[in-house]
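PROTEIN–LIGAND DATA SHEET

This sheet pairs a single protein chain with one bound small molecule, coenzyme A, given as SMILES. Inputs appear in the order they were entered. The predicted three-dimensional arrangement of chain and ligand is reported afterwards as a token string under its own label.
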Amino acid sequence: MVAAWVGDHRDELFPTERPAVARAVEKRIREFATGRHLARRAFDMLGLPRAAIPSGQAREPLWPKGCIGSITHSEALAIAAVAASGTLRGIGIDLEVVERVTPALYTRLMTPRECGLLQDADSRMPGLLFSAKEAGYKAVNPLVGTFIGFQEAEVYVDWPGSRFTLRYTGEHEPNQIMQQGEGFFCFFERYVFTLFIIR
Ligand SMILES: CC(C)(COP(=O)(O)OP(=O)(O)OC[C@H]1O[C@@H](n2cnc3c(N)ncnc32)[C@H](O)[C@@H]1OP(=O)(O)O)[C@@H](O)C(=O)NCCC(=O)NCCS
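PREDICTION REPORTED AS:
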């Protein structure tokens, strides 16, 4: 896993990566290119060649043969995680600014059970629930290929253990693979970071 401040890495983009940001604004080009830059640094660490990572139809990164991974960026910070194929089936990471998950978003992003949990919870819980779902989606979507709504997954948090699990409550059975995953979280500065892996 490699993290860095978002910088100007657009010159490093491969031709097959450029269409994803062909019409993008400056901020988006910088975060996209930094994600690719970090993923290739992770390739170096794993002894993998510096290959292209184009984007798929659901915006998912298309990882080169030999690895899987996940990318996240929030404001000035970006993180890429890469694992050699065969070590994990799925991986998703997500970074959010905790305070961005405001009460106006609760009923859209959380189930009634999760909204109930918030009453006596740590003020960072809404950000954690949101980030956990996004990390879970990023791990599962490349495996199954269907969209998962925020009301179709529930987060179960082990706060002292800094871990979570996800329960898929929707109707598309293959997405139940989400239940086999393990989630991990940490808070730093204004951020929550989540990692979800399916072994
Ligand atoms: C795709 C999504 C999760 C991205 O999260 P985000 O907070 O907007 O942005 P982040 O910076 O954390 O992540 C963006 C990166 O996620 C990755 N990503 C995008 N779509 C993806 C997908 N379908 N599968 C896996 N990874 C994906 C990409 O690498 C992207 O960066 P890039 O375009 O520069 O390569 C979010 O926009 C989304 O569509 N969510 C709805 C689905 C969902 O989360 N459901 C929860 C219930 S389980």
